[in-house]
Amino acid sequence: MEILKCDNIRKVYGSGNNQVAALNGINLSVEKGEFVAIIGASGSGKSTLLHILGGVDTPTEGNVMVEGIDISTMNRTQSAIFRRRKVGLVYQFYNLIPTLTVRKNILMPLLLDKKKVNQEYFEQVVTSLGIADKLDFLPNQLSGGQQQRAAIARSLIYRPALLLADEPTGNLDRRNGEEIVDMLKLSNRNLNQTILLITHDERVALEADRIVTIEDGRIIADRKRGD
Q: Where are the domains of the chain?
């Protein structure tokens, strides 16, 4: 089942002679349950693509369909609601609210919508991520790796259509980085979570089932692991 479709996405910044095309004709289809790595050098357009896929930014041209809904035509309020309910976002920096416990940080997307917590699913997520004993801690009482696990738990709590991870290991040492990638693979396998992982690190990309390479705003390669 196709969960994401990008049709001829272009993103242009500036005007006139100062125009810069960050993305230029991106076509991409992702099936439910895929774990896709999008790899490219700094400035290749990969983070711009992630922001468009997550509804944080809008394309200059083209359409983005998530579960059959065109998100590229949404206004700012619609995009914010869509992100909270349908997209899990994980960044290099954890973006946890420092004055809230880990539990409340994880549950924040549900609390904002006044949704009832599925306690069984919540416990499954925090247990699988190894932070079940950290729920009453504040973020600054956790290590970097533990904070990133909490951020991943928050991104999963709404059972999003997509989990978008932008350089999630970039602020971690190698051991913690490997553990975070293992956590993403676990959520992909155990929860059938569709994941798009943005990275410049080929070693991290090789952990995905499919690798899409971006250069100068274009997809130059799209291959499944083992091809």
A: 34-58+84-224
Secondary structure element (H or E) that encloses residue 51, with its range: helix 46-53
Q: Give the pLDDT confidence score for residue 227 in this predicted structure.
A: 64
Pairwise CA distance, residues 209 & 56, whole Å: 26
* Under-70 pLDDT residues of the chain: 226-227
Contact 26, 50 (CB under 8 A): no
Residues contacting residue 178 through CB under 8 Å, at least 6 positions apart? 169
Report the alpha-carbon distance of residue 125 to residue 135 in Å, rounded. Answer: 12
Lookup: tokens for 120: 């069984």
Q: For the chain, how are helix, strand and coil distributed in percent, rounded to 5?
A: 35, 30, 35
The predicted model scores a pTM of 0.83
Q: What are phi and psi of 185, to 5 degrees?
A: -65, -35
* Residue 220 pLDDT: 95
pLDDT per residue as tens digits for the range 142-158: 998 899 889 889 988 98
End-to-end CA, the chain: 22
Phi, psi (rounded to 5 degrees) for 114 = 55, 40
Nearest to 163 by CA among 185, 182, 141: 185
- Are the C-beta atoms of 94 and 139 separated by less than 8 Å? yes
Assigned CATH class of 34-58+84-224: alpha beta
Torsion of CA 166, 170, 172, 178, to 10 degrees: 70
